[in-house]
Structure formats: C-alpha cells, structure tokens
C-alpha cells in the first residue's frame, strides 16, 4: 500500500519501522522448494477467497507438496517472488534455483502487515510476495505439449510492481525454450483487470469455449459400474 497526501494517511515517520519498506525493495525470482508449501497453500486460499470460491477449495498442504515434489508429478512447477528491504546475500544453497533479481526504487514507503506470516528465513528479512504455478500436459490439438497455467497470486501490498509480468514472462520463456505449443488458462469473466493484464501480454480470449467441471456427488454417481 502506497501512502500519499490524502487526509489521515500515515506519514513515513508514523509507519512501524519493523514492517516498512523504505526507498528500496529488493526482489528475486526462484523455483519453489518444499519448505515453501505452507506459504503457497495460504496464498492459494487467498486466491480462492478473492474469487469467492473458498468453499470449493479442497486442496491441502500435503496435496500441494505431493503435486510439486512427488516424483510421480515432477513436471509441476511453482515459482516464487521473494522480497527484502536489503539486498539478498550470496547463496551457496544448491537447493535454491534463482532465476533473476531486481532492485526497485519506491516512490513512497509502504507496510507489509503480514511480514511474519510469510517470512522465508527466520534469520533474514526475506518474505514471499507471490507465486505462479504451471505444468505441461498432452494436447491432441497441437503437435507438441501445452502448459496449463494453474494460478498466479501476488499479495496486495506488492501489486503494481510488475511481479506478475515477471513470473508470467519466466513461464513463457520456459515454454519457448522447451518447445511448448501454447499456454492455456482460465480467468474469471468479471476480473477485467486480469483480462486486460493478460491481453496486454499478447493473450487471446477464447469466447467459443466454456470450462466445464464434474466433481463431488456428480462425479461420485459414476462409481456404480452398472451404468457403464
């Protein structure tokens, strides 16, 4: 959240220093690791709440961990944007695959009220700002596989800093590098800002198709093989 001269807006001197980003914001893009799963799950819950479908969300931390790190499903990828008020120290941790870093000049200080909840390293001021998840799948329509773009979420105080484009571009770069034919995903019709964001990146809205889903009792009804 940026602060300006609006009435009752807190001044920089009144912001809690321990949760404030001042003039600089340092960011890095990396591949998710298993310790990120609790954070990814919390962000996934917020994405569902944003779309008013939290009551339909049935995933768990265990199911997300299995999807990302079980050898049977090792093609699912999640990328993470970490942020810090100071530059990232050199890492010799071979488990962390860093794809890029950025240094952002802030127009005004802002607060991250959830710093503690999304802290990556308890010994350093590094916090998760958002994530993207995607995976390749077979397509009988294209000659080669496609990416299914599962979801993307950025915490509110970090929006407007081009992290979404950064993560999307990294996914698209991998698609071109590995010969993927297309990236497919769904966006809510009411989410005009998301549609504008994606179309500005070159995406095309397919009005001829509708997403259908079969789940819950409707799916369980097929458990009786007498109907086959």
From TrEMBL:
What's the name of the protein?
A: N-acetyltransferase domain-containing protein
GO terms of molecular function: N-acetyltransferase activity
> What is the superkingdom listed in this entry's lineage?
Eukaryota
Entry keyword set: Acyltransferase, Transferase
The cross-references to InterPro entries, in alphabetical order and at most eight, read: Acyl_CoA_acyltransferase, Diverse_Substrate_AcTransf, GNAT_dom
N-acetyltransferase domain segment(s): 78-225
SUPFAM superfamilies tied to this protein: Acyl-CoA N-acyltransferases (Nat) (SSF55729)
Q: Which organism is it from?
A: Anisodus tanguticus
Q: What Pfam families does the database record attribute to this sequence?
A: Acetyltransf_1 (PF00583)
